[in-house]
Amino acid sequence: MKISQILDKIDEKQLFVPAFQREYVWKRKNAKELVASLINDYPTGTMLTWETNNPPELKGDHKYDERQGAVKLILDGQQRITTLYMLMKGEIPPYYEEHEILVDIRNLYVNVESLSLEYYKAKSMDGDPLWVNLTDIFKGNVRYRDVVDDLEKKQDGERISRDREDTIDDNFRAIEKIRDREFQEQIIPPKASIKEAIDIFYIVNASGVNLTDAELALAQISGYWPEARELFKSKLKQLEKNGFVFKLDFIIYVLLGVLHTMGSKMEKLHSLENKDKIKDAWKRLDSEVLDYVLNIIKSQAYVDHTKEINSVYALVPLIVYTYHKEGEKLSQIEIKKAIKWFYYSQIRQRYISQLPQKLDKDIKIVVEESNPFDKLIGVIAVERPLEISKDEFVGAGTSNALYGLMKFYFKSKNAICLSTGINIRKNMGKKYELESDHIFPYSLLKKNGYSRNSRVKYRLAQEMTNRAILTQTANRSKSNKLAEDYLAYVKEQFPTALELQCIPDDPELWKLENFEQFLEKRRIILARELNEFLNSITETVNEELDLDLMEMIAEGENSEVEFKTTLRYDMRQNIVNKKLEEVILKTIAAFSNASGGTLIMGVDDDLNIVGLENDYKTLKSGTKDEFELHLRNLVNHAYGIEFATNNLDIQFPIVEDTEICLVNIKQGLRPLYTEVSDKNGNKSKRFYVRSGNSSPELDITEVSTYINQRFEKV
C-alpha cells in the first residue's frame, strides 16, 4: 500500500489502531533516520494489518459500529506510520491524543541542496532559503522554484547555476516521491480471533527490539480487557500529581507479582484466564494498596518524588507483600523493616541488573517467608556489604544511590535550607523546589585545578560531599560566594543548619586551600551517621544466605563455579564423545584438589539454559536417574566409591522450566589424579587444580609442593 493511501485511509476512518497499542514513543533521531531512508529509497520495514468484523477497542474517539463491516487495524508499524502522518500532514493522527505523543517529531527541516536533516535551529536556518520544513514540502506550501527565487534574491537577482537548480529540483522530487513509496504490508487472515491476532503481534515483536516483555503483556491484557490501558494510565496520572511517576511497565510487574508471585515470565499474563483475576486485583490495587504503600514511602521513608529513588521496582515487593496481607494493615515493625530493606535495596542497587530474576527471588520471599524483610536484607548482604564506607563517597556524584539516602536522612532530621531556613521536605511553590548546590563553588574550584582537564580532581569538585540541599530560590541567591563566607553566614543565621546537613563545623576546613580535607571530614561524618540512621530504624536478624541458582549462573564462571553444556553429547558432531566425560572428571578433580566448588551441566558458555535432553537421549531410559547413575559410575571408576559417595552432592533443579544438573564437590581429603587419553589412546595420570575460572593441569615439578601444602593437615 502506498504511504499516501495509508494516510488517506486513516483520515477516512478506514484504517485504525487498536487500544492495546502503546503511546507514540519514537525519538527525533528515529524520525530523521526514517526520512533519510525513504529519501534514499532504502528498506523501511513493514506494516502488519488485520481486517476484521470483530475488532477490539480502538484508539481515539471512533467507536466501531458493526454496520461498518470489516475494518482494518494496524498491529505493527504504527510508530513509523504515525511519524509519517505527523511529518507529512503536520498534525497528530486521529487515533492519538496530545498527551500520548511523548516526543513531538514535527518541525523537521531538510536542506534541499544537501538533503541534510535537522530540527529547527534559528541561528543556522533563519534567512537561509535552503532549509525548508518537510511538512511544507509535503503540503505543497513550498516548491523548488520558491527556493530558487529566494536564493537569487539574496544574490541581488543573479541567477544560480543550472546544475545547482537541477540539484534542488531533483531533491524536491525525491522528497515528494515519498508519498508514492510502497509500504510493504503483511496481513493477518480475517478469520483470526482477537487472541490469535494479538499472539501474532506478540510473535512479530518477540525479539524485544520494538516492545518490552511488559509492553507485550499489556497488549495481551488489553486484548481481553480493552479498558485496562486507560484505567492504568488514569491511575498513573493520579499518582504523578503526588510525585510518584511510573511507566505502564511498572503496573505490569505489579500485576505479575500479585497474581503469579514472580517478576519474570510475562507470558503468564497473556491468557484470557487472567481476565477476572486481573480485574479483581486491579480493583484492590487501585482503591487500596498502591495509595497505602506510597503513603508509607512518602511519610516514613521521606521520599517526596520518584526522582529520588534509584529503582522504582524496589516498590514491587512492598506492594506484593501488602497485597497478600488481604486488607490487613502493616504493623509499625513491619513498616520499619520494609523501609530499612528499601533503603538498602537503593544504595546497594539491588535492581540495577537482572530485574526479572531478582524480583522472582524477592517476591517469593515476601509471599512465603514469615520474616521476609530480614531475609531480603540478608540477600543484599550476600552480594555487597551493608555497612557504608567513607571511601564510597570518593568521586561519587549526585547520581550515586548514596545521594538519595543522604537526602532521606536529612529530611528525617528535619534539616533546613541553608539560606532560607525552610524545612527541606516537599514545599509549596516552584521556587522552593529542592536543588543540589556546590558548597565550594565549581567556578572557583575550576580556577584552582579542579577542571575537566584533571578527571580525578573534577570528580572531587562534583562529589556529593561538596553538595548542600537548598531551595531553588536560595540556590539562585547564593551565587559563587566563597565557602568560608557563605558557611559563616549560614552558621550565624541558622545555627543548627550545618549540623543537620552533616557539614563540618570547622572554619579552617571552609577555606579553599583545605577543600580536600573538608571532603574527607564530611565523608567520615556521612558514613557514620548514615550507618547509624539505617541501624536505628529497627533491629533485623542478620541471616547468612547463599546466592540462588539463577544469580549463580548470572555471575558466570569463577574459582568456585564451572558450566558445562553436556556430560557426554557432542553438540558439534551430534554424537557421544567420551572425551567430554574426561573433561567432567577433570573438573571434579580440580575442585576437589582445591577448595571445592560447583559444576553445573546443562548451561552453555553464553549462560543459556539448554538442559540435559541431549545427554538423556544417549542413555537407554533417558531419565535423570540413569544420568546420575552414569555420572556416579564414572566417578566411582576414576576416584573410588568412597569419594563418589562422600564428596559429591548431585541435584537436578528446574531453571526456566528446564532441568539441569548441579554437582557440589567438597574440598577433598586426599589428592586426586585423573587418567586421560591422548589422541593415540595412550593413557596417563594428570593432576588438575582450580585456578580462577579454569581447571589447568599442574606442572609435574609443582605437584609435590602443592600436595604438601594443600594436604599437609589432612
Structural shape: globular
SS-based structural class? Answer: alpha+beta
Identify the strand order in the major beta sheet: 1-3-2-7
Number of domains: 4
Classify the beta-strand content into a percent band: 5-15%
Give the beta-strand count. Answer: 19
Largest sheet: 4 strands, mixed
Given as residue ranges, the uncertain stretches (5+ residues, pLDDT < 50) are 428-432
Radius of gyration: 33 Å
CA-CA gap between termini: 80 Å
The number of helices is: 29
Would you kindly provide a written description of the structure presented here, covering whatever features stand out?
The protein is of the alpha+beta class and 714 residues long. The chain folds into four domains: 3-180, no CATH class; 212-384, no CATH class; 391-537, no CATH class; 552-710, Schlafen, AAA domain (Methyltransferase, Cobalt-precorrin-4 Transmethylase, Domain 2), CATH 3.30.950. It has 29 helices and 19 strands. The strands form seven sheets. Strands 1-3-2-7 form a four-stranded mixed sheet. A four-stranded mixed sheet has the order 10-13-17-14. The protein has a three-stranded antiparallel sheet with strand order 5-4-6. Strand 11 and strand 12 (575-576) form a beta hairpin. Helix 12 (275-300) packs across helix 13 (315-323). It is globular, with a radius of gyration of 33 Å. The protein starts with a helix and ends with a helix. The model is unreliable at 428-432 (pLDDT under 50).
